Each structure stands twice: as C-alpha cells, then as structure tokens.
Amino acid sequence: VISKNKLKYYSSLKRKKNREREHRFLIEGVRLCEEIFASDFEVETLLYCPALLISQRSKDVIAKFQQRGTPVLEIDVKSLQQLSDTVHSQGVVGVAKMHDFSWEQIIEHRPHILLAIDQITDPGNMGTIIRTANWFGAAAILLSENCVDVANPKVVRASMGALFYIPIFEIINFKERLHELKKMGYALFAADPVGELIYSTAPFTTKNVLILGNETTGVDAEIKMMANARLVIPRQGTGDSLNVAVAAGILLAEMKRNMPV
Amino acid sequence: VISKNKLKYYSSLKRKKNREREHRFLIEGVRLCEEIFASDFEVETLLYCPALLISQRSKDVIAKFQQRGTPVLEIDVKSLQQLSDTVHSQGVVGVAKMHDFSWEQIIEHRPHILLAIDQITDPGNMGTIIRTANWFGAAAILLSENCVDVANPKVVRASMGALFYIPIFEIINFKERLHELKKMGYALFAADPVGELIYSTAPFTTKNVLILGNETTGVDAEIKMMANARLVIPRQGTGDSLNVAVAAGILLAEMKRNMPV
Prior knowledge:
homodimer, 261 residues, alpha/beta, seven-stranded parallel beta sheet, 11 helices, 38% helix
C-alpha cells in the first residue's frame, strides 16, 4: 500500500516546477511503460490499479519491471486517478527519473543531424517533433528557453516514448550554443515560411542543425540571421503555414535523403 | 439579446449528432472567423461578448460580418462560455452552415491529387491533415466511415480554417468510391509503415490518390490490396512509426514534387 504522503508527492509531479526540482516525472499507460523499460531511463516505482488493468499487455509489463527489481505498488482507483492525466486510464503509472545525457559525448561522435527548437509551446507539436526526430535519426535535440516542458504528460504521450531514446538538452544560452555549433562546422538551417531557399535545393552537409521556431512567430529573428540558410516549403494550394511538426518531418526526411553521406 | 432557447440550440451544436441533423456547426476565435469570412461558407449568426473582446482584430472581423449583413448578436460571458470549447475564449463564436461541394464538379477538373482518409480518429491529426492537404493543393478529401467528425471543434481549430477551403466528402461506400477512382485512371497510393515501395521512388502520375489510415491499425487491408502501391517512409533512427499527419506531409510534398506535370 502507498502512504498518503507518498501519493501526494507523486501527484505533485504533475506540475512542471516540482518535476524540475525533483528531477522526476510521471509516465502513464502500457505503451509508454514498455518503451521506458527498453530505454536507459530509470523507473523508480511502478504503480498499478488491479481494477483498471484490463489487458494482458499491462500485466506483462508490470511483471517485467518486477523481475528487474523495480518497486511495484498496488493502488486503488481513486489514487491512480489522482496521478492520471487521461480520461480512460490503463491502470499503470510509472515514476521515472530524468536521465542526464552528455553533450560532449554526443558531439564527439560528429552527428550528422541535430535539431534545435526555439520556443515551441504546444505539447502535441513538441511530442510529435521528438517522435519525428527520433524516426529520422537526429542525434539530439536542443531546446531554447520558453519551450513547453518535455516531461509534460501530453508531450510524453505525443512522443510515443521517443523521448526515452533521443537525448534532449534544455539550454540556457540557446543562441550561444548555436554559435558554437556553427564554429564547429555545423550548417544551420532555419525553417522559415518566408525563407529564401526552397528546402529541396538546400546544400545539406555532413553536419546539419535544423532549427524550428515558435508556432506563431517562427524562429527568432537573430537566430534566422545566424543560420546559413532559411528554408521554405513552397505552398502549392492555400493556407498561411504548415504545422511545425509536419514541416519538421518534411525537412528531416529531405535532409536525411540529400546529405552527402 | 439572445433567447434562452436560441442559446440552447446553438450549444446543442457542440454534439456531433446535432451538428449532423442541423447541418450547422460552431466556429470559435478571431482567426477562424477571419478564415470563414474569406471562404464560401455561410455564417448564419455571429455571437460576441464585449467583455471578452480584447483585440482590435476581433472588433474588425465582427464589423466585416456586420457590413456583409450577417446577424451579429451580443451575449454575456456566461452564455459565450456555454458555446466555447476553449479555456481562454477570444469572445467570438460563429454559427456556420455546412457547405455542400459537388463531387462531379471536382472530378470534371481532373485533379492531380485527392486524399482519402480511412478511419482517422484523433481530432488534432485530422485537422492537421486537412491543413496540410490544403497547403499542398489536394483538390478534395474523401473520408471513410468512423472518422472523427470534421466539424468537431478540435478538428476545426487544428485545421486553422483550411476546412473552409478544401472540399471534404463523408463517404458511405469508401471502398467503392476508391474502386471507381481507380477505374477512372487514378493511381492509388496507400501510406503503409510496412509497404513495399520507398515513397521517394513512387511512380506518381497526373492523377493520384493518397490513402492514409487509422493511427493504430493503418489503412484497411482490403484497401491496401486495392492500391497500386503501398508507400513506406524508411526509418533512419528508432521508433515504431511516424505520426500520420507528419507522414501525410512528407508524402504530399513528394507527390507534388515528383508528379509529371
């Protein structure tokens, strides 16, 4: 059984400020539990509610964590609902520790593709971008200040667990870090609905940074100027813009295809 | 002022069944009001709450509707909240009539790209796909049964108003319609994570149908067999799949680029 205090502590992780202080976050549902099990992330405790566990898959993933030695606790419906962010809970919630990746170690491998995200605020967009970056093999993601918290439950869900595989760095000096990457020989490409270069003609190199910007205001003006090129995806029909996660997919697919490697 | 009965009627349009019966739906916010104003859709009534109207843009769009002769009614905060689907309302809601497009008229123009959507259930995905299809100039969208309702407020919002520009047909006999298109010389391409053909090598023609499937189960097996080819977007990193709206963007961008026109 779980103590009232412990439950209160776990439930406090629904708020960003507490997640940051405690370096812990909640994950919910069978799918994400399976994904985190296969990753390098550590699950501190797994909580489940027998009354809500309907699938064999849920039981299997709980058993796997138990075999690994992860503390597994049974809780009642009301307690689980306090931790849950979804309407139809699958009856299993994990308390995960944030994982620290080493930037130096990533850069040492001279990755071909890095992603830099400037002030993206919609959790669905952020999660989908992480999922897409992971699919196309980006080596890491840099986040500017004022991005939605990546441990936000909606981000975790939209990422489909990709979050557990691709290193993500919250950067204090986003612009400086981009400057450093440029000095290191990285070509910076900013997604820009009014950019001067059609994306399919971009001179991708063996070291690329794709920069995506805020849903309304786009990439910061100073960063756009710093970029080697501003890429546009030409409109063929009507509309003001593409969704930023869709643009990310089109640009990453193209980068991967046209890189000289 | 608005009568209680009228308010109740408008608020009933938050439910799919009532929208379908009444052939009307609600749109909310300045941006969508601007978009629908510029489209062929008819707004029956515009409702606004002065206390919530903070931007000049909102006042401008209301004035535009007034000039056109659309009935514009003032309502109080509580009434507006009954109609609203968002946490932070911008103080303006429109009651729009569904618009009937003519399938025959669209086909007459021998469009290069049609989109067919098989059982997509997430409103965010549906809206983003509509926005993306409109951007790349698809001529129309066919929906199978069991898709999320396109007049769902979340779909309308995610579409960013693209919904008002691209004709969308809810099809009773989805498979039969696809058969007909094939007989008419259309090449059917199904998005398929286990497809046999890499999307960048697809033999796009001057008459293409892109078929997208359900978020979990993909395109229906029978429809996949009917398609001329099943297109895969190769994974370069890790993950189970791409988000369906992201896949739609990558495939439509490629189709538009590689079509022999």
